[in-house]
Amino acid sequence: MPMVMHATLLNVDFSYGDPGSTQVIGDFSLDATLIAPDEYLATSGFLTLSGAGLSAYALTPGAYALIPNPTPPGESYSPDGAFIFDDLGMPNADPVVTNGGLLAGGPGGVEINLFSNGPDNYQFYVSNGANQTFTVPTTGSISVSVPDGGMTLTLLGVALAALAFFFRRKAITCLIA
Predict the structure, then answer these.
(1) For the chain, which residues make up each domain, given as ranges?
(2) Is residue 67 over pLDDT 60?
(3) Nearest residue to 12 via CA among 26, 32, 33, 31
């Protein structure tokens, strides 16, 4: 049985193309659930895109919503059938997203799929809902991070200790009175 823990955020950052005219920069900020050791299922969130290269792929800067996988952790077809996706991320692995990858959608039926073909080999495809698919240049960088949950556990421990001290002190005060 997979272990299920909620991660506050799964961040997937990528950049493709030359910093000049062809650059596409993206940031997936996602709510995710830990479904296996170092394997997260993205459940909601947004892909924010920027860069001068967006117009070449019929994209505009802004936020595109994650399309949740209806059959996790298996793969599913995208709404327009252009992609197979699974919305899985693995922050400490290579590749950091699976071959199915992450899927986001936007106005006019636009679908955006970020996926891997193996270690250090990622692709970013765009479908505009009219059976046109564009491949964004694959030279670039990608990283995945999960904020450290250790601080949350530390704060919880301190809070519980403070409560225990408060109630112990109150009990002693009641016994003395």
Answers:
(1) 5-146, 149-177
(2) yes
(3) 26
